[in-house]
Specification:
The chain is an all-alpha fold. Helix content is 78%, strand content 0%.
């Protein structure tokens, strides 16, 4: 029993170490994307004097959300490239399907990683949840600032 636990512990520790590179790249990509969203908001978040406030607010939110969506897509693609480049998945289409299911925590896929790497997708899911939380915080700040402009 103890030997099985040690083997399992090492296996997941090894997966954690392998996940550090794509996780770090996820954070870098996300930081750049959220920075772009913030810069866009600072530049276009205030409506021109005398204009309708609702229209510009909606447009700003659509663009900020699109930037966030694109950022998440690049992160999914980066994880897929990691799976493909390391040979864990044999083609990029499979890697994208697996990655989007892990990143979004959907988990519904017939694709799986080989043998001892079976749990690596869980580390992508953890990263994805953290990035969605970060995006939510940025979006909440944008909405709060848009409402304060109205007041």
């Amino acid at each position: 029993m103890l030997e099985a636990f040690r083997e399992l512990h090492f296996q997941y520790f090894e997966q954690f170490l392998a996940a550090l590179l794509p996780m770090a790249l996820t954070v870098v990509i996300h930081g750049q994307g959220m920075g772009l969203a913030a810069r866009y908001f600072k530049r276009f978040g205030r409506p021109p004097a005398g204009s309708s406030r609702t229209g510009p607010h909606v447009a700003v939110l659509i663009v900020v959300a699109a930037i966030m969506l694109a950022t998440h897509f690049f992160e999914v693609f980066m994880w897929a490239a990691f799976y493909f480049a390391t040979g864990l998945l044999s083609n990029i289409k499979e890697a994208m399907t697996y990655s989007i299911n892990c990143y979004t925590t959907l988990g519904a896929t017939s694709i799986d990683l080989p043998g001892r790497w079976h749990g690596l997708g869980g580390f992508e899911a953890i990263s994805g949840m953290l990035m969605f939380g970060w995006s939510t915080a940025v979006l909440a700040a944008v909405v709060q600032k848009l409402h304060s402009i109205d007041g």
